[in-house]
Design goal:
Length: 460
């Protein structure tokens, strides 16, 4: 129990309440001592008034008055004259004098603590103002033994009362903490354990219900985390299933494409100008498809292989991509252009950069064709001090909100109906493999701009 949050809170509460009571104890004892001394002065004054009323008191009666007042001597100053009103033998000499007229808090506290810590009985002189202006000054001598006993009794009563208050307060706070904090925290822990047992089950996701603001914020954060994790697990499961399917499909597709490659070798021998012009592009496309199948495609059985970096002409590569996409334009009013210096050489994996540009241009083409409006797609490239910047711009309708929210996430950032959202995820992974970055510069009703940043690194 002592290692629990509520148990430690109980102990700390008791300690803090006791410390607070100790801070109250010191001035309280000092106040008690002052009141005790003032009461002795008042009793001595009453005894003096009795003597003034009848100055023929017997010694026995004077002794009884002094005993009732708890003092040895009483001196009263009236009309600028000091007079010893009552007196009796003192057991020892006066050790200290205390003037209560105008005494401040700190001297009173100091004197009280010194008296409480001094067990030796002493005779002290106490000076004060008479009650009801019955003179200018009253002075008594008294023994400190009774004063110290009364102070100890008073202090013990305060400590006992403080202990009782501390225990009651601690128990009440203990119950409040158990109800308001410990129980909700255990509920959150229970939800976490249930979720960890079956993270793919959306029913195990916590529903925020705490009334304490901080705990509710923790539950909301946990709810968001569990939701994202469950979605990620489902996505990974779909990717794993896709990987198994792609592994089977790629094997047979590679064989089919290899046979098609043999046919294109024959087609290249044709004398038809159109065939001779199109055949090399067909051969390159099939070769890339065979290579892609051998790598089991993106997001299939394994991650993308590390890029093989070489220096090549970017303009020629972009032209190949654009020519392949122009064949798919059909009757749509769509133009595709490139603005890349013919001498620009970049250091990258040509096959992976071909796929990256192909996916970006293909997405733009499909978005413009789906809108039914004329459009333009432009590919530009510039060389900066440390990077190559390639931008793909289109005048399409822009990305939908869901695509922007889940940008570069497979199966969640689909731009068109029925799309898987793999295209941008593939481009993002390919560019990251080069140590570069794919960013969405702009996307609104006037069009979309994607930028690829490729680090130059050390060019050899």
């Amino acid at each position: 129990m002592l290692n629990s949050l509520s148990g430690r809170f109980l102990i700390l509460t008791t300690i803090f309440v006791m410390l607070a009571e100790v801070m109250i104890f010191v001035p309280s004892v000092a106040r008690f001592r002052e009141d005790y001394l003032i009461s002795r002065l008042e009793r001595a004054q009453i005894a003096s008034l009795a003597l003034l009323a009848d100055d023929m008191l017997t010694e026995e009666l004077e002794s009884e008055l002094l005993k009732n007042a708890g003092v040895f001597n009483v001196a009263l100053r009236r009309d600028e004259v000091s007079e010893l009103m009552l007196s009796s033998p003192m057991p020892k000499e006066i050790s200290q004098s205390f003037d209560l007229r105008g005494a401040t808090a700190m001297p009173l506290i100091r004197d009280a603590m010194m008296r409480l810590l001094d067990p030796e009985p002493r005779v002290i002189r106490v000076i004060g103002n008479p009650s009801l202006d019955a003179g200018q000054q009253i002075e008594v001598t008294m023994d400190t033994a009774g004063l110290r006993r009364a102070m100890i009794d008073y202090g013990l009563n305060i400590l006992v009362l403080s202990a009782v208050i501390s225990v009651i307060t601690a128990i009440l706070l203990f119950g409040a903490v158990r109800i308001l904090l410990v129980k909700p925290i255990k509920g959150v822990i229970g939800h976490m354990m249930s979720y960890s047992a079956a993270p793919e089950d959306a029913r195990q996701i916590i529903e925020p219900s705490a009334g304490v603001r901080e705990l509710r914020e923790a539950e909301v954060a946990l709810h968001d985390l569990q939701t994202q994790l469950t979605q990620a697990l489902k996505q990974k499961d779909r990717l794993a299933q896709l990987g198994g399917a792609v592994a089977r499909v790629s094997h047979d597709l590679r064989n089919i494409l290899t046979a098609a490659q043999l046919f294109t070798d024959r087609i290249e021998m044709s004398e038809d100008p159109t065939v001779k012009r199109m055949a090399p592009k067909l051969v390159n496309s099939i070769t890339r498809a065979v290579s892609l199948c051998e790598n089991t495609l993106a997001f299939g059985r394994a991650e993308e292989p590390a890029p093989t970096l070489t220096l090549f002409n970017l303009s020629n590569l972009a032209c190949e991509v654009i020519d392949a996409e122009r064949l798919a334009v059909g009757d749509a009013e769509l133009s595709i252009s490139e603005d890349i210096p013919t001498s620009m050489m970049v250091r990258a994996d040509p096959e992976q950069l071909y796929r990256a540009l192909g996916n970006l241009i293909r997405n733009a083409r499909q978005a413009i064709v789906a809108s039914g409006k004329p459009g333009e797609i432009g590919v530009r490239a510039t060389a900066m001090d440390e990077d190559w910047i390639i931008t793909v711009t289109d005048t399409g309708p822009g990305l939908p909100p869901k695509a922007k929210e889940h940008l570069f996430q497979a199966f969640q950032g689909g731009v068109r109906k029925g799309g898987s959202g793999l295209g941008l995820a593939i481009v993002h992974e390919l560019i990251r493999g080069h140590g570069g970055e794919l960013t969405l510069e702009r996307s609104d009703e006037t069009g979309t701009v994607f930028a690829i940043r490729l680090p130059m690194g050390k060019i050899t």
